[in-house]
Design a protein that fits this description.
Number of strands: 6
Shape: extended
Distance between the termini: 33 Å
Mean pLDDT: 80
Low-confidence stretches: none
Structural class: alpha+beta
Largest sheet: 2 strands, antiparallel
Radius of gyration: 20 Å
Strand order of the largest sheet: 1-2
Number of helices: 2
């Protein structure tokens, strides 16, 4: 198994159901270039967008058009869309969101016929965060 994956600690088949198998790996604590926690949605969202732009510039080099786009998004769009959500008595109540919801991460339980979602990259965020493209 490549070094980028946490090393396995065990695998096998469940005793009660021979069609159910498991694979366990060591927990891999992650840290690094992710934006730090903040209590303000605007700041959290801005930090995340800033990292996207920094990664793009690092990978592709400086570009005038991208710099203008970055400035407009950071100084106008985010402020106009998000600031009103937390001013004049408005308050966002974060909720746990999946963050990678698409048809490849959904299924139906064969026994209960209820929907299943999996492969989450969960965080607490605005309740409409999951609806973004």
């Amino acid at each position: 198994m490549p070094d980028i994956f946490p090393q396995p600690t065990g695998n096998g088949t469940h005793k009660k159901d021979s069609d159910t198998h498991f694979f366990l790996r060591r927990f891999h604590a992650m840290k690094g270039r992710l934006p730090q926690n903040t209590t303000e949605w605007e700041e959290c969202f801005s930090n995340g967008f800033e990292q996207f732009f920094e990664a793009e510039e690092e990978a592709q080099g400086f570009d005038e058009e991208m710099a203008a786009l970055r400035k407009g998004i950071m100084e106008k769009v985010i402020l106009r869309l998000l600031r009103p959500l937390e001013t004049d008595g408005n308050e966002i109540q974060p909720c746990l969101v999946h963050r990678d919801l698409w048809d490849g991460n959904t299924s139906v339980d064969s026994k209960t016929n209820k929907p299943l979602i999996f492969d989450a990259c969960s965080s607490y965020a605005h309740h409409e965060h999951e609806l973004a493209p």
